[in-house]
Design goal:
- Chain A: GO terms for molecular function: 2 iron, 2 sulfur cluster binding; metal ion binding; oxidoreductase activity, acting on the aldehyde or oxo group of donors.
- Chain A: Pfam families: Fer2, Fer2_2.
- Chain A: It comes from Alterirhizorhabdus solaris.
- Chain A: Keywords: 2Fe-2S, Iron, Iron-sulfur, Metal-binding, Oxidoreductase.
- The complex is a heterodimer of chains A (about 170) and B (about 750).
- Chain A has 2 domains: about 80 residues, Beta-grasp domain (Ubiquitin-like (UB roll), Roll); about 70 residues, Orthogonal Bundle (DNA polymerase, domain 1).
- Chain A is about 35% helix and about 15% strand.
- Chain A has 7 helices and 5 strands.
- In chain A, strands 2-1-5-3-4 form a 5-stranded mixed sheet.
- With about 750 residues, chain B is an alpha+beta fold.
- Chain B has 3 domains: about 150 residues, 2-Layer Sandwich (Aldehyde Oxidoreductase, domain 4); about 190 residues, Alpha-Beta Complex (Aldehyde Oxidoreductase, domain 3), CATH 3.90.1170; about 325 residues, Aldehyde oxidase/xanthine dehydrogenase, molybdopterin binding domain (Aldehyde Oxidoreductase, domain 4, 2-Layer Sandwich), CATH 3.30.365.10.
- The radius of gyration of chain B is 27 Å and the shape is globular.
- Classes of the chains: A alpha+beta (about 170), B alpha+beta (about 750).
Chain lengths: ~170, ~750
């Protein structure tokens, strides 16, 4: 059961906003953000950057993975107001139709998705993995991509796609 | 006939909706931007059974931004007959009605909807809604419920009652070799990655556009119209992208009901999305107990099959599956009997989940078959060949095709089965025990009446459309390939449209009938366009095609071509200009019995598979790794080998979940699922997946469906968990009869 904490007083107080400056996909914007808004909800509901997906809102599925200052992170676990000055890259910033990122092309060519819902998170996570420079082998990619769930079971195709791109860059 | 470059049925092409998916430009149900949108957050019942005594909304209403708290006390009028809530699945009983009255039928039942200007305000306010209940005694323990199992009077459509043969009781009593036991499958939740969500656009004229997560836009349209009293014309439902469903979206789910209820009440546009936790409030694969008794001669020839199963349903609907029929159909055995019953628990009604019935009943049966093979000291693959039935052994009918023998041969060869040593615990790799197991998979090859349209414009662009869904199955690509094949156009010149209740009628997408049915409808519509083209070409001065009929021509590279004189080619544009046509649009319906299908009318129609699994088990820690799977599938004609392979991979991966991970645990004191999140409901992850090889066995079958397609959505999961369980026995000598096979069961 949900419990009501300080119901009488807290509930009646408007939550207020905090001015926050974020660079998203190269574009710097300042927004008045309520402190309880996650980066994920800000992107999806506030900025209409719906490529970042909500699969659990608990940091358990990886669908909301974005890159903050080149590092992959679950955007559902980050309150947006804590990111003042951060540089955020979402799937929309990696590539667009007609100008695909190598990972996006590789995912298409390897059929590394079915329903497509986990896909932006998988791709952002893979880019983070490449940035980290740790994964070279299939086993390492599998281990270090395990935070990104795919219920359609496209895992082996995803690893093939990621290895393709790692191989090109190696 | 076709040139080498022609792309059509059988071509392995990239998914045509791929670019949208990899760039995040594909919009799913909860992702459509709407002005002045209100957000709804669901409040769920905290008890499993009883009634609501009071709801204190005061604190919730005081949260800035909150617009309304909707409960059974203040909701607008909704339909009151059960009939109005029935959907295409027609499950006998009294369908659940959200916010209808004060009754609580299951824990996590939606009991209020908080509407606010922001998602966060709605979520917070929902936490402030205080509900007082009067609880009644509940039971969520299926093992207790089976004491009151029963055969439902009214059967669900599609239910096949098992047919007994011979005298199985006597044959089992007389059998020199016997295996018998109870086999169990726990509740499993579908958990598609996209959570159930709906965005309802409210229009000033009182009509609504609903973006919904569903496997059938027209099912939801019909449901909303009948429940809320809309004219169908005023309800348009769209689902062009669906983030997985696996059966959970076959019936309209309660978030769409709630979103439309709120939109109607407030005359505003509304979005309601379930949380991952709330995703456990509805559909789940029924829990099952299957009692299997097998008798055999010492040679390994089966003499008796006794197969009884009970699955869980709710108090208010009888959800039935075909659980016990598969083993009786698949094995040559003179004596067989079976019984299927359901038992009620205080949960939401169980639901179809990928290969409903077969994933349960065939999988558990295939573990028992493995046990009998060991009892008879016969290789498990050889055992299956000794008892191979070329016909449907339960119904006594031939199959339109059954290339299971070929699947066994090709799969075994790819796997290296001949190198297997027979004894359990006889293979090892360092610290790990190695086991090899096999199993059979089986599913229905179904076909459902479906319409499609095809529109060719003079610039050579073709649009094909059908109200089917693509839940990750590849429907867009299948429709494109069939159209490309029929009219000889490259895929780049073809647009496939689906996921819209305005489009030509299609059934809900499920049961693996999608490709066969919408594919056939698209082919018919394109053929009709082809006939119109030929007629138009007759207007060309000099009539280059002469008196040619449709049988005398083919369509290639955007031209009508004379079969007997391939140098005579009429571009589509020339024909259309001659007849003064700017476009040709045709709609056709493919119904059962079409083409050569009538020849298969009284035959059994099934897909089959042979699955081979290798496991490695750490003897000290009990950790199991599935290191190799070969799945050889006999599923008729394959339209796109690339997406087809992915569908099987996906089924196999979900089968691995069934074998090793997936289980939803109820807390029987609270009558509530405990592990309702991805942290505790375990599904396979990257690290679990090693080498999976998919083989499609050649199986031409013009009688099964017009295109010879049997469907692939389900067959990949059926039997996979059995192959793994059987491999675990081979590795460890430990026979586990309840899935999933977790470490504790290995070390026990």
């Amino acid at each position: 059961m949900p419990t009501a904490v300080n119901t009488a007083t807290y509930a009646a107080v408007p939550i207020g906003t905090v001015p926050t400056t974020l660079t998203i996909n190269g574009e710097t914007r300042t927004r008045a953000i309520e402190p309880w808004t996650t980066l994920l909800d800000l992107l999806r509901e506030g900025e209409d950057l719906i490529g970042t997906k909500k699969g659990c809102d608990h940091g358990q599925c990886g669908a909301c993975t974005v890159l903050i200052d080149e590092r992959r992170i679950n955007s559902c676990l980050k309150l947006a107001v804590t990111l003042d000055g951060a540089d955020i890259t979402t799937i929309e910033g990696l590539g667009q139709p007609g100008d695909l990122h190598p990972l996006q092309s590789a995912f298409c060519n390897h059929d590394a998705f079915q329903c497509g819902y986990c896909t932006p998170g998988q791709i952002c996570s893979a880019q983070g993995l490449i940035n980290e420079g740790k994964a070279k082998t299939r086993d390492e990619v599998r281990e270090l991509m395990s935070g990104n769930l795919c219920r359609c079971g496209a895992y082996s195709n995803i690893v093939d796609a990621v290895l393709d791109v790692i191989g090109e860059q190696a | 006939m076709a040139t080498a470059a022609k792309i059509g049925i059988g071509s392995a092409i990239n998914r045509v909706d791929g670019v949208e998916k990899v760039t995040g430009t594909a919009r799913y149900a909860a992702e459509h931007p709407v002005e002045n949108l209100l957000y709804g957050y669901i409040v769920e019942a905290a008890i499993a059974k009883g009634r609501i005594v009071s709801i204190d909304e005061e604190a919730a209403r005081a949260v800035p931004g909150v617009v309304e708290v909707i409960t059974h006390l203040n909701r607008p009028h909704v339909a009151w007959t059960d009939h109005s809530y029935q959907d295409e699945l027609k499950i006998p009983g009294s369908p659940f009605r959200p916010l209808y009255d004060d009754r609580i039928q299951f824990s996590q039942q939606p009991i209020a909807l908080v509407m606010a200007e922001t998602f966060e305000a709605a979520r917070y306010a929902a936490s402030l809604v205080e509900v007082a209940y009067e609880a009644e005694a509940h039971n969520t323990d299926f093992e207790v419920a089976v004491g009151e199992k029963y055969v439902p009077k009214k059967k669900r459509s599609g239910y096949m009652a098992p047919k007994d043969r011979g005298d199985a009781a006597q044959a089992f009593a007389d059998a020199p070799l016997k295996v018998s036991g109870d086999y169990r499958l726990p509740p499993e939740h579908h958990n598609p990655m996209e959570m159930f969500g709906s965005t309802v656009e409210w229009h000033d004229d009182g009509s609504i556009t609903v973006h919904d997560k569903t496997q059938g836009s027209q099912v939801v349209q019909g449901y909303l119209a009948s429940v809320f009293g809309f004219s169908k014309k005023k309800v348009r439902v769209l689902n062009p992208y669906v983030g997985g469903a696996f059966g959970s979206g076959l019936r309209p789910q309660h978030q769409v009901f709630l979103a439309v209820l709120a939109a109607k009440m407030l005359e505003r546009s509304v979005r309601v999305t379930m949380t991952r936790n709330q995703m456990f409030s509805h559909a789940y694969r029924p829990q099952a107990i299957q009692s299997i008794a097998l008798g055999a001669e010492t040679t390994g020839k089966l003499t008796a099959i006794r197969n009884e199963a009970t699955t869980s349903t709710s108090r208010y609907e009888d959800n039935m599956e075909n659980v016990v029929t598969w083993g009786l159909m698949n094995y040559d055995c003179p004596n067989a009997d079976a019984e299927y019953t359901v038992a009620q628990v205080d949960t939401a009604t169980s639901a179809d989940m990928r290969a409903p019935g077969a994933a349960t009943g065939m999988t558990l049966f295939e573990i028992a078959i493995d046990e009998m093979a060991y009892e008879a000291k016969v290789d498990p693959l050889e055992f299956r060949l000794i008892n191979y039935s070329p016909i449907d052994a339960m119904n006594g009918t031939p199959y339109t095709s059954k290339a299971l023998r070929e699947a066994f041969q090709e799969g075994a060869e790819a796997f290296g089965w001949s190198k297997r040593s027979a004894e359990a615990r006889s293979m090892r790799d360092g610290k790990e025990l190695v086991g090899w197991g096999c199993a059979t998979g089986m599913w229905d090859a179904q076909f459902s009446k479906t319409s499609a349209s095809a529109k060719l414009t003079a610039n050579g662009h073709l649009e094909v459309a059908c109200a089917t869904s693509d839940i990750g199955t590849g429907s867009y690509t299948v429709m494109t390939l069939v159209a490309a094949d029929t009219l000889g156009l490259p895929p780049e010149q073809i647009t496939a449209k689906l996921g819209d209740s305005d489009l030509p009628t299609a059934p809900v997408e499920g049961g693996s009938w999608g490709a066969a049915s919408s594919g056939a409808a698209v082919q018919l519509a394109c053929q009709a366009v082809g006939k119109k083209l030929l007629k138009a070409a007759g207007k060309i001065a000099g009539a280059p095609l002469g008196e040619a009929t449709i049988d005398d021509v083919l369509f290639e590279d955007g031209c009508i071509v004379l079969k007997d004189a391939p140098t005579v080619r009429v571009p589509f544009g020339d024909a259309m200009r001659a007849a003064d046509l700017t476009q040709i649009e045709e709609e056709e319906t493919a119904a059962p019995g079409f083409g050569d299908m009538w020849k298969g009318m009284h035959k059994s129609k099934n897909t089959h598979s042979a699955i081979f699994a290798e496991v490695k088990v750490d003897e000290e820690l009990g950790v199991i790794r599935v290191t190799r799977i070969v799945d050889a599938v006999a599923a008729g004609r394959i339209i796109n080998p690339k997406t087809a392979r992915s569908q099987i991979l996906g089924g196999v991966v979900m089968g691995m979940g069934m074998a090793l991970h997936e289980e939803t645990f109820p807390d029987h004191r609270l009558g509530r699922w405990m592990n309702h999140n991805f942290g505790e409901y375990h599904v396979p992850v990257h690290a679990d997946i090693h080498d999976i090889q998919v083989i499609f066995v050649d199986e031409p079958d013009p009688e099964v469906t017009p295109l010879g397609v049997k469907g692939l959505g389900e067959i990949g999961i059926v039997g996979t968990a059995a192959a793994i369980a059987n491999a675990i026995y081979h590795a460890t000598g430990k026979r586990v009869r309840s899935l999933p096979i977790t470490i504790d069961k290995i070390l026990d």
